[in-house]
Amino acid sequence: MRLKEDAHEARQASVTARAIAARLPSALARAWRLGWRADRRCVLVLLAGTLVCALLTAAALHAIASLLAHLLAPGDAAGRLRDAVPALLVVTAATGLAYLADAGSRLAAARLAPQVHREADLAVIAASTRAELGAYHDPGFDKARFAATEGAKKSGELVGGAQGFVSATAQLAAATVVVASLNALLLPVMLLAVVPRVWGAVRAAQITHATAHRNLADSRLRGVLAQYATDGSTAPEVRAYTMSGFLLDQYRATSHRLEREQYAGARRGALAQGAGDLLAAATTAAVWAGIVFLLVNGDMSVAAAATTVLAVRTANAALTGSVRASASLFTTGLYVTDWATFIDTAPAWAMNRGTLRAPAAGPDLIEARGLTFTYPRTATPAVDKVDLTIGRGEVIALVGENGSGKSTLARLLTGLYLPTQGTITWDGHPTQDLDPNTLWQTIALVPQDYTRWSLTARENVTLGRPRPGGDRAVHEAARHAGADTVLAQLPHGLNTSLARSWWGGHDLSGGQWQRLAIARGFHKDEPTSALDARAEHQLFTRLRTLAHGRAATLFITHRLANAAVADRVIVMHDGRITETGTYDELLAAEGPFAEMKNLQDRRADPTDAVVGSAS
Ligand SMILES: Nc1ncnc2c1ncn2[C@@H]1O[C@H](COP(=O)(O)OP(=O)(O)OP(=O)(O)O)[C@@H](O)[C@H]1O
């Protein structure tokens, strides 16, 4: 089994070093802004600590030069030692304080990193919640969001990387100044060592990132296989279909492929890094040779030579640190660039709707004209030129075979999707022009694939929007949905956590979860619900009474007998309305609805039961 690498990943993997380097400053600037927004004091402490540390390093090196000059000067030993004491004190104080300043800036970076991660994550969450629901059907959006979430995780590391880079570079600058003041000739050769090392490290980082991107599909597949094999939700099927052997084999095969690719990437990276280091070693050797040459020719004193050796060593250590930090910054920057790309492009998927307030009590009239909706990257419309008028208080049953467009139509009528063609209006206003928040406040939705929120029972009904009646309203909604018996058996009542896989969480059966999901619909003031197709007949009867005098109620049902409680039944086929009328009218017409109903009466609903057989 192998998932095909898609165009997005292939594009990411083939990004050139130059293109990435060009985007890096803007990613860094963004991280800086995130840090500034998260904790200014920390940013200032980090910068101040780093700069002070660099200045103190330079001061210590200068003091070492003076110390050596005093110690190596002609004269008696006691006098030379006495003269050297002030420089010695400066060296000790500067070195100690430099360590303190460095520790301070590291601490600030450690404090800032999680805050930057939080801000980056919040930016992704905010951009996602601002997106049109339709964006979730665009694979481009989902991929970009996934990459951005990974990038947000790395954004914290960017702070540590940036701190290390600035610190090492500042120390390098300090050592460079000292070397330049002792002998300017050594400077260009010493700086030459930077180039091959940086090239090697950056090339290695690019190879690692490209390898990771190329193998994204396999990495995901491996994760999914492990989850299938171990997750509680798949455990019954894994056992019943004796799938564990198959899953383990697939896991091993995918892992072997991944490991081979990763090793090949690591080998190429190590070669690039090694080549860079080798060149750097050659230039460093040239520096040592230069010092010896100057010393032998008498162009440099022993004290100056000794200080130069120290400065070059300090510069080399700083250089190594700086190269390592820039390589890690580069790698992290690649991921943070994915984050920045999503934040930049997310507005294209954002909701672009009007500000007109939707009627607080829901619309009196919903009208669809030529209503069409085509999912991204699909050829045929899911809802095709539908004309429909729904009045206040009407109860509508949407029926039709799987994939006929019922859910899509319900989402269009409730303003969750906007039409790709045609119009849908609420009291004459296109849903596009209505403020989405005021619009959705008037609808209640019980989708077929409702969420089992890992929250308390109360929050599972209120979804964070308690009604003035408080818990009374929750119990009332539960009673209407037939979920009162579910609540009654919970060990801590409404406070019971339904986070089933967490400690102290309480699990419910599928049917009990369904009732809670329906209670959510009743908990909202004006239920215009797209109700789950397999809810109980009793529930539909209650729905009928509740819907009276309120905004329209729309429910999707596969059990056609439930449609009897509706004022009107709408039959869909291939995105179009093929039949409409009251339940009795449709049965009498002996058309497709009557045919489906007869078929259903003759056989049990296959989705209703799981039958076990033993032989
Ligand atoms: N995210 C999507 N991307 C592409 N096509 C989709 C997507 N969701 C649904 N479709 C397609 O749109 C059509 C209508 O789907 P819809 O979910 O509205 O049908 P439905 O009548 O509610 O089906 P069911 O009774 O099985 O729930 C189907 O052909 C389906 O394959």
From TrEMBL:
It is found in: Cell membrane. Keywords: ATP-binding, Membrane, Nucleotide-binding, Transmembrane, Transmembrane helix. The keyword Nucleotidyltransferase does not apply. Residues 366-599 form the ABC transporter domain. Its main location: membrane. GO terms for molecular function: ABC-type oligopeptide transporter activity; ATP binding; ATP hydrolysis activity. Coiled coil: none annotated. Pfam families: ABC_tran. The chain crosses the membrane at residues 43-72, 84-101, 172-195. It is a multi-pass membrane protein. This is ABC transporter ATP-binding protein. It comes from Streptomyces jumonjinensis.
